[in-house]
Every structure is written in structure tokens, then in C-alpha cells.
Amino acid sequence: MKAETKSTNVRYYEYVIDNIKGMIIRGELKQGEKIPSERELAERFNVSRVPIREALKILEYMGILDSTQGDGTYVRNFTVPDLIERMNFIVTGTADTIMDLLELRIDLECFAAYYAALRRTDEDIALFRKALLDMREAKRNSTPDGETIARLRQLSHQFHRCLVQAAHNAVLTSVYENLYELLDISRQFTIDTSGISYDSILAHEAIFNRIIQQDAEGARQSMKEHLSEVRIKLNATLADAETAELSQAHSVS
Fold it and tell me: Do 44 and 51 form a contact (C-beta atoms < 8 A)?
């Protein structure tokens, strides 16, 4: 079936997401089925591979698709209404709310860092240490493959979840866990194909050292500095994506 026409006010990756949603709703893509290759999707939707990769990455982070290194990408097993709800959020939300999500993440995690420094237990400290050691080990042995990059992302996420738990605030933990998938949308734009950098690991260790010292204000400031760097990277990534979209628009016009 022919792809839907892209309207002028829709970004290319949103257009791809909307078309993949349509393929699932119409039964062209079934649960557990392998989706077409990037090249095939690019030809089908008359776009370059850049928005195809963006769309697939977002769909994977939202739990719609499941990618296996060396095997391909599959539609996960969900009810159609659930798939539609998630995809509708993606299409209407990502373009305008990526920065809003990061701002919320900054507020939540700076709050968490402050109280983690005051309330952390020996068990919390052990979990932090393990996350950081695993992060350094994974980075030292990293290779440019999807599995390793996914592992580095997972360890970074684990550190931040440890931080929230160490604040020992039940409401914060509940809010953070309920928003976890949405907050991850901003992360997928700031962790590139090399995974996390050594500078990022050092930033995590600086936060941990403040927590060890029970320096609440210092922990909050270290987290704020870390996420300010994330904000800069996110702005650059979104600008690059917009440039790529403009180039795509010129190439098909």
C-alpha cells in the first residue's frame, strides 16, 4: 500500500512513525514480525535513511520495536490500542516536548541528588559503586556495536535510578518511575552511536563523590552541571536533525 503523503508541517521522522503506525493498524506489520530494512523503508516513504533511523530509534526506546544486533528489528507484542496510544504520543509530543522533558529531568534529578547526599545508606553506596565500576569496564571494552552501546546506556540509566532511590522519597520515586519511558526520549537524543563518553563517566563519579561526602548542595550542583552539558548536546543534536530534514526537503523538492 502506498505511503501517506507528508504534510509540510510534519517532520520527516514523524512522517515515518505515522506510516509505520498505519502499517501496524492495517495489519501489514504484525506483532512479532520483522520490519523491512532501512533501505526498503526509505524507498517506500520516499525519504533518506536519516529520518528512518531516527524513527526506528524512537520507536525502540518507546518499546514499540525490538532491535537485535545482526538479526533485525521486530514489532513487539502489544495490543493495538496500546500501540496507537504510544505512537500518537510520539508523533504529537517528541518534536515540541523534548526540551520540556529534559527540563523536568533536570529538576527531578537535581532534587534527587540533594537528598541522596543526605539520606544515602551503605546499600545505596554499594549500588552506586557497582554501577560506576560496570560503566568504566563496559567503556574500556566497548566496541561500536548495538549491543555494547545498549549496555552503556543501560548502565547510565541504572546510575540515575540509583540516585532517585537513594533520595528515599516515595513520591519522587513514583513520579520518576511513571515518567521513566518519557524521560528516556530525551536520553536517546543525547547518547550517540559511541554510547557514553569518559567525560560523562567522570561527571557521574563527581556526583557520587559529593554524595559520599554528604555534600547535598555540592551533589545538586554537580548534577546540574552534568545535565547542563546534556542540554548543550541535546540542542546540537536537534539542530543537526533539523539541518538533515532541510537537506532532505531540498533533495525531494
Answer: no
pLDDT at 248: 54
State the architecture of 96-252 in CATH terms. Answer: Up-down Bundle (1.20)
pTM: 0.63
Q: What's the confidence (pLDDT) of residue 93?
A: 53
| Cell numbers standing for residue 206 | 563527581
Is the CATH number 3.30.930.10 carried by domain 12-78? no
Contact residues for 241 (Cβ-Cβ < 8 A; gap 6+): 13, 54
For 193-223, give one letter per residue: b (16+ CB within 10 A) or e: eebbeeebbebbbbbbebbeeebbebbbbbb
Residues of the chain with CATH 1.10.10.10: 12-78
Sequence-distant (≥ 6) Cβ neighbours of residue 247 within 8 angstroms = none
Reported as a single tens digit per residue, the pLDDT across 1-38 is 556 555 544 578 888 888 888 888 888 888 889 999 99
User: Per residue in 160-178, pLDDT tens?
Assistant: 999 999 999 999 998 888 7
pLDDT in tens, 123-137: 999 999 999 999 888
